[in-house]
Known about the structure:
The protein is of the alpha/beta class. It has two domains: 1-49 and 59-80 and 117-205 and 313-361, FAD/NAD(P)-binding domain (3-Layer(bba) Sandwich); 85-113 and 209-296, Polyamine Oxidase, Chain A, domain 2, CATH 3.90.660.10. The chain has helices spanning 12-23, 68-76, 121-128, 178-181, 192-199, 259-265, 267-282, 346-361, and strands at residues 5-8, 28-32, 43-46, 49-56, 81-83, 89-93, 101-104, 114-116, 136-138, 140-147, 153-159, 164-169, 171-174, 185-187, 209-215, 225-231, 236-241, 249-255, 291-296, 331-333. The strands form five sheets. The protein has a seven-stranded mixed beta sheet with strand order 7-6-16-17-18-15-19, with helices on one face. A five-stranded parallel beta sheet has the order 9-2-1-13-20, covered by helices on one side. β10 and β11 (153-159) form a beta hairpin. α1 packs parallel to α8 (346-361). The longest helix is centred in the last third of the chain and has 16 residues, at 267-282. It is elongated, with a radius of gyration of 21 Å. It starts with a strand and ends with a helix. The model has no long low-confidence stretch (mean pLDDT 95).
Amino acid sequence: MDNPVVIIGAGLSGLRAASLLAAEGIECRVLEARDRIGGRVMTERVENRPDLGKFDLGPTWFWPAYERKIAEVAEEMKLDTFVQYNQGAMLVERSREEAPAHNMLPADAGMESMRFTGGVQALVDAVATTLPDEMVEFGKRVTRIRMEVDEKITVEAEKDNGEKDSIAASSVILALPPRLAATIEFSPDLPSSLVTGLESKPTWMAGQAKAIAVYDRPFWREEGLSGFAMSWAGPLQEIHDASPEKGSGALFGFFGMPAESRRELGEDEVLKLVENQLVRLFGSRAREMETILYKDWTEDAETAVAADSVPLQDFPVYGPPGDLGTWEKKVYFAGTEADPQFGGHLEGALQAAERVVRDLRR
C-alpha cells in the first residue's frame, strides 16, 4: 500500500484494528477527535483520592462464558480481572412510599460477569501499548472523505485550533458510532440507503447517563445486600455494586429518567435525587459518600447526536452496513454497532475490528 490505512476513532475497536494491522507491518494512522483514547470507555478516579480506586463511567463488564474474544485478549495482555460481586439480597423498589423488598437470587441466576482490575481503561491502555509511538493523533475531527477519479482517497480533518489537515489514505476504517459516521461528508456520496441505515442505528449507551456513588467501604455487604437493585421509582432504574476488588465501595446506576428530563433538571438536582434514592434503598449510611461521579453520554458530542436522546424501546439490530457502492473495498465499518452478535458490548467492538482487518486483507 502506498498510503496508510486511516482509522477514524481511537476507541477499543479502532485501537484493536490498528494493533492487528500494525502487527502485519501495515502502516496506519488513527485520528481521534477527543484528547484521549477509549471512546465510550471512560474510567475515572476520585479527584484528590486516588486511593479509592478507579470507576467505569462507560462499559463495565464482560461475560467470558460466551464472549470468547475479549477473554482471549485479556489473557493475551495479561490483564487482571475479578468476578462482579453479587452475593446477598437484591432490592426491588416499586414506589417511594413503600420500603424496598428483599429478594434472594438463586446461585445460578445468571452467567458470571467479570470486571477488569483498574477498570475497562486497563484493556484499552493495554491494546494501545501495542501500537507504534504517535500512531494515534488527537484533536482531529474528520469532516470529509473524498475519492478522486483515479480512486485516490483523501481524508480531511479539522484540528482543535481550527487548522485543516489532509491525509492521503489507501482505505478508511470508520471505528465510530454509525450516526456520527453519517455526519461525515463523502465525495462521491455514499448510497442514500446506506446513509439512512447509519442514521437509524442508535448509538449504544448514547442516550444513557451513569452515576457512581463512592464510599470508604461497601457497607451494604455488611447488611447482607448485594448492591443490586431494581426501581420503578427512580431516578436510577438499575443499580449494581461497582466496588473495586478490595478497599473502597461504590454503587452505580443506570437512569430510567429520560435525557430531556435530566437536561431540564440539571446535574446538581439529578444527583440530589440519586442520593435520596440510595438512602431510601440502602439506609442513612448511603448519604456518607466520598463523592459521586456522573457522566451524561447524551451531552458528549463525540458520542451522541440529537436522535440518541430518544429512549430505546427495543434492543437495536446491529451489524455491518449495506451496499457501499463506489466505496466498496475503500471504506470499512468497525465499532461495536457493526457487530451482528455482540453489538453494544466490548466483545462486539473487538469482533468488528477483527472482521474489518480480515476484509481489508482480502
